[in-house]
Amino acid sequence: MTRLILQGGGMAEPLDVEAPAGSLLIDAVRELAREGRLPLYWRCGQGTCGACLVHLHRAGNESKPVVMVGKERNVLARKGLLSEAERLAPSLPDHPDLPRLACHVVVEGEQLKVSW
Ligand code: FES
Question: Is the pLDDT of residue 60 over 80?
Answer without folding.
Answer: no
